Amino acid sequence: MTLPPRVTDRAFARLAEIAEMTGENRALRVGVLGGGCSGFQYDIRLDEAASDDVVLEKAGQKVLVDPTSLPFLQNAVIDYTDELIGARFVVENPNASSACGCGTSFSI
User: Cα-flanking dihedrals φ and ψ of residue 12, to 5°?
Assistant: First the structure.
């Protein structure tokens, strides 16, 4: 059985802030695509749910993971960070054997 990633309270709170600012309550999609400098890259964007998505939800905010990406994100943590270099959603992935410096691509 593949365990879904965990989403931090900070990530859900940021989704709520985005919904309040935009007036739209869209979900955060976190997926994995082939490519990037390390072999795979994260696809993180606001989106609508598909019928086969795994939906992680808290206080009306949703994070979506498609079935193909789920094994790559097993036991990962989806968080939101706001640092001097920028603010963004990040994935802490224990399945990645290496990652590039920007944090958006990885290898297994």
Answer: -65, -40
3-state SS, residue 72: helix
The token duo for 99 is 């990652």
pTM here?
0.85
The residues spanned by each domain of the chain are 6-107
- Angle (CA) 91-93-94 rounded to 5° is 160
**pLDDT cut 70: percent of the chain above it:** 85
Strands 61-65 and 27-34: parallel
Provide the token pair at 81.
């960070």
Residues 6 or more apart whose CB falls under 8 angstroms from that of 68 comprise 31, 32
User: Rounded CA gap, 14 and 16, in Å?
Assistant: 5
- Identify the CATH number of the domain defined by range 6-107: 2.60.300.12
Q: Which two tokens stand for residue 103?
A: 């944090």
Q: Tell me the pLDDT band of 93, cut-offs 50, 70 and 90.
A: confident
